[in-house]
Amino acid sequence: MTPIDPSRVINITEALDSEPGLYTKVMESTAVASVYAPNQDAEDKVYAALKDLSPHMKVYRKEDIPDRFFYKHGPFVSRITCIADLGWAILQPMAPHFPAKGSAILKGYHGYDNKLTDMRGIFYATGPYFKAGSSVDHIRAIDPYNLMCNILGLEAAPNNGSLAVFEPLIAPSAGERVSSSALHLFLVLLQVSVLKTLSVIDVELFRHKAFDQHQEMNDDDDDDDDDDDDDDDDDDTVVVVVVMMMMMVMMMMMMMMVVMMMMMMVMEILLTRSIEGRAPRKVTMLRQAVQKLLPVRQNLAQQINRNFGASAVVAQKANLDPIQQLFVDKIREYRTKSVGGKLVDATPETETALRDSLANLERAYGAKGVDMTQFPTLNFTEPELVWPGLTADQKVKMYEVVEAAELADMEKQAAAEEPPKYDPWEGM
């Protein structure tokens, strides 16, 4: 933001109103004014009238707007764009006086050339990912996206931002933090694997023991005891072999997980420790290559969880975004309220739309119960909000001024479009 002096204004009203029909609309934000001309001839006249109007305002045709603004290729960009110098305000026909639009005097404005220091924002970062007391010269608004993706271990989509500008801020232990989360995941999966293996072995041994006891109870022939003992020994051998094979398979899976996770942990630590501050482009490329492996690790963890009984329903609910989850939770709270909730002064269309939304949630997320058919009391007759600082009379007066200005603008535009009347007596 930059301070504004009411005396530093550029009024483009007289230039645009010097001839009827030069423009159809002017959109402005104090620092920038966009002038829409109805045709090429009008555009040329507007450009000629504005380009030398003030030394504190730059005037561009659409194709001449600097590329660094990333603006001129938009389909709705006006043919003429005016940009004021820092601290100057552009006044236009709809608001030819300062302050514009009857608002209170503002002490500062945004929207000037983004290369100016006054237009920069403030960037703060805290946490174990960053070095204490570190700083950088400046960053662009599109750069933090790459930083956030890097912190979360996500692969950034193609963009014009840069992660290299943040290298002086990133702590050497940032890679260890990411790696420690991988190690924690590995230990959890290892624990689950061991418990599952022990439970399988215990179940198999219990089933075999119960089967032996059942056979002994039904065995009435004492002469065949020796033969039964031989059969039991054979069964014991089969069970032991099956259990051993299962344990070998589990051990192989665990070894594969250990190798994959250890490789990724080592690569992450090397990237953040040994080559920090050198060849940032190569560091970024290597880090992105490691991040491409992360989905493999995540998919492996999901598969292991499914194999060990993780609920698909829980996984589905975990994938809800916070707004959806909040909406579902709020709807489920209705079942704790008194039955017979109603909509106060709601139209049938509103009630139908709400019920349809709840039905869609029920189909999408399996939310069922009384809460899906009962509504809380929603009042659609709340008093209209009053703008802060305005009384009711002031608000009415403001609307009258706005309507009068709009009516005058419509009459002016209609007069400009009306063809000249033919007077047969003219010149006689």
From TrEMBL:
UniProt keywords, alphabetically: Cell membrane, CF(0), Disulfide bond, Glycoprotein, GPI-anchor, Hydrogen ion transport, Hydrolase, Ion transport, Lipid degradation, Lipid metabolism, Lipoprotein, Membrane, Metal-binding, Mitochondrion, Mitochondrion inner membrane, Phosphoprotein, Signal, Transmembrane, Transmembrane helix, Transport, Zinc
Membrane topology qualifier: Lipid-anchor; GPI-anchor
Subcellular location: Cell membrane; Mitochondrion inner membrane
Keyword Transmembrane: yes
Region (Disordered) residue spans: 215-234
Catalytic reaction list: sphing-4-enine-phosphocholine + H2O = sphing-4-enine + phosphocholine + H(+); 1-(9Z,12Z)-octadecadienoyl-sn-glycero-3-phosphocholine + H2O = 1-(9Z,12Z-octadecadienoyl)-sn-glycerol + phosphocholine + H(+); 1-(5Z,8Z,11Z,14Z-eicosatetraenoyl)-sn-glycero-3-phosphocholine + H2O = 1-(5Z,8Z,11Z,14Z-eicosatetraenoyl)-sn-glycerol + phosphocholine + H(+); 1-(9Z-octadecenoyl)-sn-glycero-3-phosphocholine + H2O = 1-(9Z-octadecenoyl)-sn-glycerol + phosphocholine + H(+)
Gene Ontology biological process terms, A to Z: lipid catabolic process; proton motive force-driven ATP synthesis
Cofactor: Zn(2+)
Lineage top rank: taxon: Eukaryota
PANTHER family tied to this protein: ECTONUCLEOTIDE PYROPHOSPHATASE/PHOSPHODIESTERASE, GLYCEROPHOSPHOCHOLINE CHOLINEPHOSPHODIESTERASE ENPP6
GO molecular function: glycerophosphocholine cholinephosphodiesterase activity; metal ion binding; proton transmembrane transporter activity
Role noted for this protein: Choline-specific glycerophosphodiesterase that hydrolyzes glycerophosphocholine (GPC) and lysophosphatidylcholine (LPC) and contributes to supplying choline to the cells. Has a preference for LPC with short (12:0 and 14:0) or polyunsaturated (18:2 and 20:4) fatty acids. In vitro, hydrolyzes only choline-containing lysophospholipids, such as sphingosylphosphorylcholine (SPC), platelet-activating factor (PAF) and lysoPAF, but not other lysophospholipids.
Alphabetized InterPro entries for the sequence: Alkaline_phosphatase_core_sf (IPR017850), ATP_synth_f6_mt (IPR008387), ATP_synth_f6_sf_mt (IPR036204), Phosphodiest/P_Trfase (IPR002591)
Compositional bias ranges of the Acidic residues kind: 218-234
Keyword Ribonucleoprotein: no
Regions crossing the membrane: 238-271
Designated name of the protein: glycerophosphocholine cholinephosphodiesterase
GO CC terms: mitochondrial inner membrane; plasma membrane; proton-transporting ATP synthase complex; side of membrane
